[in-house]
Amino acid sequence: MHLPEGITTFRQHPDQRWEVDFAPSFDKNSKQISFVNSVNTTKGGQHVEHVMSQVVEAVWDSIWEV
């Protein structure tokens, strides 16, 4: 996935097993690229839903704190 120039991405390494990168989306569609055990999981799955739900919750919490 290629992002437009100048887009800031956010990378987290919560532990040795996980690496999570995310960037803002400027259209109504979210996109994901995921790998499990070095295998590209193009259709996502429970691991993607698990991470996305935590990211969305953190963003909403930040918005409502303002």
From TrEMBL:
Ranges for domain DNA topoisomerase type IIA subunit B: 9-61
Coiled coil: none
First-tier enzyme category under EC: isomerase
GO MF, one example: DNA topoisomerase type II (double strand cut, ATP-hydrolyzing) activity
Pfam families: DNA_gyraseB
GO biological process, one term: DNA topological change
EC number(s) from the headed UniProt entry: 5.6.2.2
Gene Ontology cellular component annotations, sorted alphabetically: nucleus
Gene3D superfamilies noted in UniProt: 3.30.230.10
Cofactor(s) it depends on: Mg(2+)
Reactions the enzyme catalyzes: ATP-dependent breakage, passage and rejoining of double-stranded DNA
Keywords assigned by UniProt, alphabetized: DNA-binding, Isomerase, Topoisomerase
Name recorded for this polypeptide: DNA topoisomerase (ATP-hydrolyzing)
